[in-house]
């Protein structure tokens, strides 16, 4: 691999009608032919991603999943990049329950579709998510081992206060990542991982594995959980409508309904390949 191109999934590759654009797929295949590693870096767990694409084979060498908790190669190699220990899980649970913050916990990668949660969720987004994962819901009391991550569902009325509280209290010992809900596209989630877990860290591990210098890397994103990979990339791309301040200096391109991935690939291939 001579270079790495990474893209997020929701809001970049996946269009608003939940389909993939043929031109975007063709652009990724052109990248591969040019000797670049094509990488998908998404907050979705394996089950969620494979359900979203409906059995379509994606043209990526590697899938970085669960915001960097693990990755899977196109040959099926599974790499776990971090897990919360039972002690970590207890620490985070105690804090969230003490502060009455609603949350769910996901099983260790790659089984991060297992959702440990309260059976009576109050938050509308949490209720929808439990409906989607109905057959994989487990009582919180059954979580006794490692976990991939926590998801905290913030109340819009107290969002800023609660976000600051979690980041201040847990940010020193854990990785706290802000993301926009892929369900209602409004609610802010806070994802809590072990320190050092993230899309950027996973991509850095791949770059080391392939011997790819930072100057020959690119990443396309649209939301706050892409921040570390955009900072990691030699060339960063942001779709239109992405939050201001997310990646100063990034190249702005059209959104997913206007072939975002194709635009980014065309520009980067002209610049770097």
Q: Find the CATH topology of the largest domain.
A: Rossmann fold
Q: Would you count the extended β strands for me?
A: 14
Q: At the fourth CATH level, what is the homologous superfamily of the largest domain?
A: HAD superfamily/HAD-like
Low-confidence stretches: none
Structure annotation, total helices: 8
Share in β-strands: 15-25%
> What structural class do the secondary elements suggest?
alpha/beta
What count of structural domains? 2
Given the C-alpha coordinates, what overall shape results? globular
Biggest sheet features: 8 strands, mixed
Q: What is the N-to-C order of secondary-structure elements (H for helix, E for strand)?
A: EHEHEEEHEEHEEHEEHEHEEH
Oligomer: single chain
* CATH architecture term of the largest domain: 3-Layer(aba) Sandwich
- Alpha-carbon Rg, integer: 18 Å
Provide the CATH top-level class of the largest domain: Alpha Beta
Q: Strand order, biggest sheet? A: 5-4-3-2-1-12-13-14
Summarize model confidence as the mean pLDDT. Answer: 94
Span of the ends, CA to CA:
12 Å
Helix-residue proportion:
25-40%
């Amino acid at each position: 691999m001579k270079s790495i191109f990474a893209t997020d999934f929701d809001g970049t590759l996946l269009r608003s009608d939940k389909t993939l654009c043929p031109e975007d797929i063709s652009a990724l295949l052109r990248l591969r032919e040019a000797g670049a590693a094509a990488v998908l870096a998404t907050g979705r767990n394996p089950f969620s991603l494979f359900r979203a694409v409906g059995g379509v084979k994606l043209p990526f060498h590697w899938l970085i999943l669960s915001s960097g908790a693990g990755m899977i190669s196109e040959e099926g190699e599974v790499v776990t990049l971090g897990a919360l220990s039972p002690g970590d899980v207890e620490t985070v649970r105690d804090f969230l329950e003490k502060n009455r913050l609603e949350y769910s916990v996901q099983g260790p990668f790659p089984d991060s579709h297992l959702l440990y949660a309260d059976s009576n969720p109050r938050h509308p987004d949490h209720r929808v998510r439990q409906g989607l994962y109905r057959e994989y819901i487990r009582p919180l009391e059954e979580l006794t081992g490692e976990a991939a991550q926590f998801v905290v569902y913030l109340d819009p009325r107290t969002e800023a206060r609660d976000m600051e509280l979690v980041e201040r209290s847990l940010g020193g010992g854990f990785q706290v990542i802000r993301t926009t809900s892929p369900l209602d596209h409004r609610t802010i989630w806070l994802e809590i991982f072990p320190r050092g877990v993230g899309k950027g860290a996973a991509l850095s591990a791949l770059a080391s594995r392939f011997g790819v210098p930072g100057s020959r890397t690119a990443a396309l994103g649209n939301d706050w959980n892409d921040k570390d990979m955009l900072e990691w990339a030699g060339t960063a791309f942001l779709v239109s409508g992405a939050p201001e301040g997310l990646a100063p200096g990034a190249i702005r391109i059209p959104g997913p309904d206007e072939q975002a991935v194709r635009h980014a690939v065309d520009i980067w291939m002209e610049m770097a390949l």
